[in-house]
Amino acid sequence: MATMIKVSAELRDRVNRQARERGVSAAGPIEGLLDGYERRERMEAFGRAFRAAPADYRDEFREWDVTLNDARDAG
Which one of 20, 30, 57, 65 is most buried, by most CB atoms within 10 A? Predict the structure, then answer.
């Protein structure tokens, strides 16, 4: 299903140029940008939650992170 959205001619041309260069439809670059934006939002929410967590939780998290990295590097 196609839906039209109003954008400036300049933006339309930019999206179409990016799509052509990648060999995808105009939705491709828009979807990529939205995916990146949503990922950044999730990561920022995680960061806020992590900073709000009690210090002992953050300490344990870091210990596990170091342990798992050490195990990966040894493998």
Answer: 30
